[in-house]
Specification:
CATH class: Alpha Beta
Number of domains: 1
CATH superfamily: Gcn5-related N-acetyltransferase (GNAT)
Number of strands: 7
Bound molecules: coenzyme A
Distance between the termini: 18 Å
Largest sheet: 7 strands, mixed
Helix content: 25-40%
Structural class: alpha+beta
CATH topology: Aminopeptidase
Shape: globular
CATH architecture: 3-Layer(aba) Sandwich
Length: 157
Amino acid sequence: MIDMIVNLYELPDSTALYARLSEQGIILRRANAFERHIVAAWVGEHFSPKWVSEVKVAFSRQPVSCYIATRDKEILGFACVETTAKAFYGPTGVSEAARGTGIGKALLLRSMEALKEAGYVYGIIGGVGPRAFYEKAIGATAIPNSTPGIYRDILPD
Ligand SMILES: CC(C)(COP(=O)(O)OP(=O)(O)OC[C@H]1O[C@@H](n2cnc3c(N)ncnc32)[C@H](O)[C@@H]1OP(=O)(O)O)[C@@H](O)C(=O)NCCC(=O)NCCS
């Protein structure tokens, strides 16, 4: 697993992608504090206990630093910033059935826009993961010597 870096001053324009998802009835928004148990349970069902721990950190922040994609009041995907570490993106995931429709990229762009709005110049994608996705979706580049990075001496589940 490597970490990747994103230049926040060169983010792609997200307008068309957000509009395309909206036309499909997909809502991309910040999660609400009162939805923490619902989002955490969804992450546990689709992903891992460690991601549940991280997503709960996003809900301990104000404003909440977790974004979700929903349709008909069902979660399709989620993404967090500043849970694992400052300026870090992740964890993130899209339900298997909803993959390939642009949701993962939209969550990524929305999260990176949030980091930029918070004043960061670079965003870090921690512990990648699908490297080609990040290269293509947002022009992320690998950080040299970033393995294992922060992900060392990890307690087993
Ligand atoms: C990675 C993930 C979030 C992508 O979500 P998604 O909604 O399927 O991605 P999108 O539909 O937004 O894809 C955007 C583009 O990236 C491409 N892409 C998606 N996954 C890719 C992958 N694994 N490798 C290379 N390209 C990928 C798509 O083909 C699409 O290309 P296009 O713009 O030319 O159409 C999703 O596959 C997932 O949840 N994976 C499991 C969890 C995970 O690995 N999380 C990341 C941890 S670092």
